[in-house]
Specification:
The protein is an all-alpha fold and 158 residues long. The chain contains 7 helices and no strands. Its main location: mitochondrion.
Length: 158
């Protein structure tokens, strides 16, 4: 397993996620608003969760932060690429990697981009193999149906 695999498969400890979720909800209940710092801490935990729904929620918060808080955009964009890669949303992941690399050159982001490209290519190849297999099965079924129909016609002629 390469380091990018390890990084993407590393899961946030549940107690960290719960602590930042509690802080997020507490601020929301108290002020009706959550600080940028708390939103980022919470979304950072969410995109490292083992659950896809958590990751998607983290992505939504990061997208909002990237729109409304330009100072942290660099970090938000990186974790948007990271979160999308974790849920196999490779097109979005690549989009965020490229957006980051437009801002600055970064080896970690470049290796994430390479990783996403490789995974995306694997998914495409897997999809083509499945589609090819399905076509063979369908062709086999049609061929069998035609053979059975011809066989039935022969028997009816006798």
């Amino acid at each position: 397993m390469n380091t990018m695999d390890e990084l993407l498969n590393e899961v946030v400890p549940q107690e960290d996620l719960e602590r930042f979720e509690k802080k997020y909800n507490h601020e929301l209940e108290l002020d009706g608003e959550v600080t940028t710092e708390t939103k980022f801490e919470y979304s950072f935990c969410l995109v490292r969760s083992r659950y896809t729904n958590d990751i998607r929620k983290g992505i939504m918060i990061l997208e909002e932060l990237a729109r409304t808080h330009p100072d942290g955009r660099r970090d938000y964009i990186y974790y948007l690429a990271f979160g999308n890669a974790r849920i196999k949303e490779y097109t979005s992941g690549l989009k965020y990697c490229r957006a980051f690399l437009d801002i600055e050159s970064n080896d970690q982001v470049r290796s994430l981009e390479e990783y996403i490209k490789k995974q995306s290519d694997k998914e495409v190849a897997k999809g083509m193999a499945v589609a090819g297999g399905a076509a063979l099965v369908l062709g086999g079924i049609l061929g069998l149906g035609i053979a059975m129909a011809k066989n039935k016609q022969k028997r009816e002629k006798k």
